[in-house]
Each structure stands twice: as structure tokens, then as C-alpha cells.
Amino acid sequence: MKTLKFKLYQSKRNRHLKRTINAAGVIYNHCIALHKRYYR
Questions:
Q1: Which residues 6+ apart lie within 8 Å of 18 measured at CB?
Q2: Is-contact 14 8, C-beta < 8 A?
Q3: What is the rounded distance in angstroms from the CA atom of residue 2 to the CA atom of residue 13?
Q4: Distance between CA 1 and CA 32 in Å, rounded?
Q5: Is residue 8 packed enough to be buried (19+ CB in 10 Å), middle (13-18) or exposed (0-12)?
Q6: C-beta of residue 18 within 8 angstroms of C-beta of residue 11
Q7: CA dist., res. 4 & res. 23, Å (int)
Q8: At residue 1, does pLDDT exceed 60?
Q9: For residues 27 and 15, which has the higher predicted lDDT (pLDDT)?
Q10: Which domain holds residue 13?
């Protein structure tokens, strides 16, 4: 529970980092979608 609270606290503090992670996630998902489309 302490680690979870710490992670939530960190994510609130590091908004720029969170934004970067979200952007990376979107790009990653896009790559997976393209991969699924072309390699079926």
C-alpha cells in the first residue's frame, strides 16, 4: 500500500514525466496496431 501511495504521489509530482510516458504508450500502441495490420 505504501508503494502504491508513493507511485501515485510521484505521478502527481512528475506531470511532465507522466505526459512523456503517455506519449510513449500511444506510439507503442500505434506500432502494435500497424504490426497486427501488416503481419496477419
A1: 11
A2: no
A3: 16
A4: 32
A5: exposed
A6: yes
A7: 22
A8: no
A9: 27
A10: 4-39
- Chain mean pLDDT for the chain: 75
Q: Report the pLDDT value the prediction gives residue 5, as an integer from 0 to 100.
A: 63
Q: From CA 28, how far away is CA 37, in angstroms rounded?
A: 14
Residue 19's pLDDT is what? 78
Q: Angle between the 15-38 and 2-13 helix axes, to the nearest 10 degrees?
A: 100
- Judged against a pLDDT cut of 70, whether residue 31 lies above it is answered with yes
Counting the structural domains of the chain, the total is 1
Residue recorded with cell 502504491: 4
Q: Which residues are CB-neighbours of 14 under 8 A, at least 6 positions away?
A: none
